[in-house]
Amino acid sequence: MACFSHVCSHKTQIIQNVKLAGIDIGSNAVRLLIMEITERDSNPDKTVFTKDVLVRAPLRLGEQVFVKGYLMDDKINLLEKTMQAFANLMEVFEVKGYRACATSAMRDATNGNDIIERIREHTGVQIEILNGNEESLIVFGSYANNQQHTKEAFLNIDVGGGSTELVLFHDGKIIANRSFNIGTIRLLYEQVEHTQWVEMKAWLEEKRKMFDIPIVGVGSGGNINKVRSMYLNNSADKPLSINKLQKIYDELSSYSLEERMKELGLKPDRADVIVPATRIYLNVMTWGGLKKMVIPQIGVADGLVRQLYKTMKAKGQL
Question: What tens digit of pLDDT does each residue of 68-122 get?
C-alpha cells in the first residue's frame, strides 16, 4: 500500500512513497529488485528511486536452453521456487506493483510459454517474454533522461548471459538499437555463431560514422558492475577507459577459473562468465570507436521498475 506523508523539509513536500518491483529472468541469473519511489512536490524531476531489496539467484537457464533448446524439469522447478520466493518477498515488503520479464533463454526455449503458464498457475507471478528489441530499450530509460543536452552521444551496452543489447542515443533520443545473440553463457558453451560477431562489428562501424562527436559507453549488467567494484573502487563518477579495460581483460584471462575464485574472491557463477563478458565489452568499444565507458550500476530490473512507475502514473494507479 502507498504511504502518504505531509512532512515538509526545506520547502519540499513528500507527496507519497510507494514500492514497486522488477523481476529480470535472465539467461545467467534471475533477479528481484524492489525500489522505493519517493515523489516530491508533484515534480517528476524530483522523484527519487531508492533500491530497497535486491535478490539474485544464479539459475543459469541458458545452460540448458542454448545447448538443448528447452528447459528441463530441474531448472523449471528451481525457477518456480524462485518465483514463489519472490512473490512472498513482494508481499512482505508491501509492493504495490511489479513487472516480471524473461529475456534470451526463455525467448529461445521451445517450452517457454508452457513454463510461464505453469508459474502463473502455481505462484501467481505473471511473466512476459521480451523480444530482443524490447529488451534493448529497457535499460535505456534508466540512464538516458539524465544525459540530455550534452556534447556527447552514448551507447548503452548491456551484456547478459544470452544476448547483448546496444542502444545508441543522443540528447535523450534513441538513434538506433540492436540485440545480438552474443552472451556470456552462449560463449561458454560455444553457441555464438561467427556471423553474429560479423554483424555486430558491421553495425557498430556503421553507427560510429553518424557522429563527429565522442560516443561514450554506458555499461550495464552484473559483470561490468563487478569490474567496477574490483578495479574502480565502486566509483560512479570514474569512467573506464578502453586501455584500462584491455588491461583488465588481460589480467582476468591470465587467471585460471580456480584462481579467479581463490585469489580474486569471485563466486563460481561469476568467475567463469566475467572473462567472456569483458571480451564483449572490449569488442563493442573497439568497433564502436569508444574511448571510455561509464558504469552507473543499472540493469534490466531497474528499467522495468522505472517503466512500470511511468505506466502506473499515467493510468492514475499511483
Answer: 999 999 999 999 999 999 999 999 999 999 999 999 999 999 999 999 999 999 9
Cell 557463477 locates to 269
Please tell me whether residue 184 adopts helix, strand or coil conformation: helix
- CA dist., res. 31 & res. 143, Å (int): 19
What is the value of pTM for the model shown? 0.88
Backbone angles phi, psi at 126, to 5 degrees: -100, 125
Nearest to 151 by CA among 167, 169, 170: 170
What's the CA gap between 318 and 315, in Å, rounded? 8
Contact 278, 164 (CB under 8 A): no
Q: What is the pLDDT of residues 248-270, one digit of tens each?
A: 999 999 999 999 999 999 999 99
Cβ-contact 281, 157 below 8 angstroms: yes
**Cβ atoms of 19 and 36 closer than 8 Å:** yes
d(CA 35, CA 301): 10
